[in-house]
Model the fold of this input.
Amino acid sequence: MLPLFVFVDACGWEIIKNDPFARTLAPNRKKLTSVFGYSSACVPSILSGRWPEQHRNWCYFVFDPKNSPFKALRPLHWLPEKLTSRRIFRRWLSKFIKHQLNFRGYFDLYNIPFKYISLYDFSEKKSPLQPQGMNRGPNIFDYLLERRVRYHVSRPEWTEEANLTSLMRELESEAVDFTFLYWPGLDGLLHEVGNQSPKVPAKLRLYERWLDQLLSLAKRHYAEVRLYIFSDHGMANCDEVLDLRSKIDALDCRMAEDYAVVYDSTMARFWFFNHHARTLITDFLNQVPQGRIVQDAELEQMRTFFPDRYFGELIFLVKEGLLIVPSHMGERPIRAMHGYHPSDPQSFAVLCTNQPTIPDEIVAIPDIYRLMTRDVEEVIKLLNHCASPREALRSTV
Ligand SMILES: [Zn+2]
Done:
């Protein structure tokens, strides 16, 4: 038996609700609740079956000057901004820093100003797509390793096609007993063109062709293929921008002296150094109609509350469809974004499977982990049944 888990980034419920995506291959569909945060929170939650408050992979940048690995970059703020704010320069520098600092996961400096870079730490130094890749606790790859199950996982540095080819080769040689395929392309496309573009269904048709190829190959080599196609969140079109930074800058308190902030694209996270700044900023944010301060009780409910305030003392979240621009994530607007409240319509994720039933307790994206471990246990049972695992599988055909 081969569990085939295919992660299609940003393939939200609203994206495929009225689309026949994978209907013939995986007809059983379910709408899943996402995790509050970005892919930096969602992906580790899927891979570990736990929530951000447990695994502590939430937002990328945090205020932590003591542990900041970026101190050496501070002098770069003397370079002309024309150069340092350019994406191409930032991408190149991000690659260089990632290598220098031995970061294993995804890393991007985004638009963090060099003037303040030494105030921040980056919270994802390891890759959640590898064993021991979580900030806290194990993930599915630790689980597989411990049980000596041979698995395939996509390499994020490769293209979708290269990962597909590599998996096909492994299936042909029956070299794996569990697969986790990761397709990030739809997410990138949606950010660029929005959720109404004809390019979106075109991409879904391409994925269907790939899935067809994969499944027919897998079925030639494995007695049973359990297909699960799932996502981490959806994507909302951004029709309005909010320049929060200039409004906060205009208040009677100073960044780095009175407070620190990370402007994510849908959230602003603040740390305060004095009472004056806290009151001033809190009062101001309470007047901003485009968003709201997320209270601790609600953060707890969403399981993204951190008692040590590691990711921010105050979390401001905008309404779906709004984009904070400029932000530390980008200088210019993009067509669409995710990272809104999990109850906003475009936030919902999806699970499509060829299995006849989806257990009732599978309701949110971290629950996908339970399907993975359930199937791994069954694979192990099958493999243990016979001295020669391959023969055992073939005899069931
Ligand atoms: Zn994205």
Observations:
- The pocket of zinc ion is lined by residues 10, 39, 187, 191, 338 (CB under 6 Å).
- Residues 199-221 form the longest helix (23 residues).
- The two ends are 10 Å apart (CA to CA).
- The chain has a mean pLDDT of 92.
